[in-house]
Amino acid sequence: MLREIWVLVKTIALAALIALLTVQFVVQPTIVEGNSMEPVVSSGERLLVNKLIYRFTPPQRGDIVVLKTGNNNPEYLKRIVGLPGEEIEIRKGLTYINGEILNEPYLKERMVGEYGPYTVPTNNVFVMGDNRNNSLDSRSPSLGFISIEQISGRADFVFWPVFELKVLAGDQGR
Known about the structure:
Umud Fragment, subunit A, elongated, 1 helix, 12 strands, alpha+beta, four-stranded antiparallel sheet, 14% helix
């Protein structure tokens, strides 16, 4: 009997260790707070964030990413719009990358305001929420360009609520 209990304890400990390492280094569930990514991702939805992807491939335009902004600051969920070395400008509600209009079919509505032109620094990206008129993002001096090291992972999948299941990786905007 004691031997069977010991086997059970070891099995549970091993499963807990594997789960902990998976969440720490591979994939992490995250709850969306706020509506800056609507209509693609809504507040209260739960995502799986791929924490391993950017060890093998650089961030791409269109990726929806989780950003770390500091020890006591919240994490943000935003879409990568501009890559290192690209010129970003917003005129008359349209986003321009290196002078070309960016096709953004995922936007909730046309954006208000002007921005730039600015060049994205090396090892940085320019991010915006899909709900552009209600998003704290790279257009704001308080957030600005995002260092690639601040990206904790790519949001790949909405798994809750069940009727909202969807794949986010490879989303529009590339």
